[in-house]
């Protein structure tokens, strides 16, 4: 412990504090004596006892039953509110899904319309390209060409050439379909022949195995019969001269 300084207490200051504290305590006690409550004076009156015990018990039972009913009613109201909130949430989700489906349907319709428009434009472009190509080819190959053809004959030639090209394209597709059907029919016939040959071969193998089994059984039977005959021939002379033999 380091060095320290010892301060002597001030006795005068201590006495003054003690006197002040004692004076405050005396004042408190004097105040308590002065403000002590006096005697209580009440008007006499009848306290309770205006109902019988049975009525009190009945009232308590009624209050308890009402409390139970109130709790049950609150519980039912809570369940109904919860169910209504869940149904509202489900309806909201259904509405959102319906809206999404409607938007998707509108989008599909728009895409379908765009696709059709693009298809029509492509078809028009191909038709014009075909007509332009026919305009280049027809004057060179047509031997009965008019010297100064008019716009009506040119349009008729274009339409005729376009119809002819469509007819040739349709005939070509029909021919391809016929060839495809013919190839499928030939392939089906070839498969049927293979299946028939396989079944015939399996039937022949089965018959051959059956015949082999019968032949082996027949040979075994003949060998067994020959063995029994030889055995009987060996034992028969001795049995002729046995007593009681009748032939």
UniProtKB/TrEMBL annotation:
Keywords: Coiled coil. The keyword Coiled coil applies. Residues 71-121, 163-197 form a coiled coil. InterPro entries: EPSTI1 (IPR026185). This is ESIP1 protein.
